[in-house]
# Entry
Amino acid sequence: MPPAYAPASRRHRRNGKPWRNRGNAERVKRRKAQGLQDRYLYDYTFANYNSQNPVMEKAHAYVEHWKEAYRDNTGLLLFGDVGTGKSFFAGCIANALLDRDVPVLMTNFPSILNRLTGVFAEDRAAFIASLDDYSLLVIDDLGVERNTEYAMEQMFTVIDSRYRSKKPLIVTTNLKLEEIKNPPDLAREGFMATYWNGAHRFSFPVRTSGRKEPGRPKQRRKRL
# Structure
């Protein structure tokens, strides 16, 4: 099985502050290459946002208070219609933290399912555990994967593993809140409701910038 995602080495510090040098810049570059699986995500930055919106101010606040968010395991659930800026919101957070040398992975469940398909159980467990090595995990577009029993099983396993790691998780989805909290599998309904009730939830009823997210190519994700 190919190596699982692996964050780069820990941040070097001098006098308690980040040591900004060439080695640090290279490390941040490697973190971005590992953590942003799609190139268009590189454009999801605060610098590319030219509007004033209270929701985006919350993204800034999350980054500025990252130490507290990490300490308190503060996750975010971003839900709303297509084109309302959820992925851009999450991408801005991911890029800003990566620039601060924080290990972040922004991915989606179809990509995760592709990695898990056709491998041995121990390799699946190792891969899922590797996702918890990241200080922040961002899962984009929850719900685009087909709701097969296998897909639901893996989704639950990934979220449960993250929950047990006590590390923050950000999820974006086009699903309605009730669909997320009450999955078809009633055996897991209680857990999912408890988990999402513990996350900070932001609804995106309209586009945050009045336009579509920048740089995102039109593509059809492979459905399993």
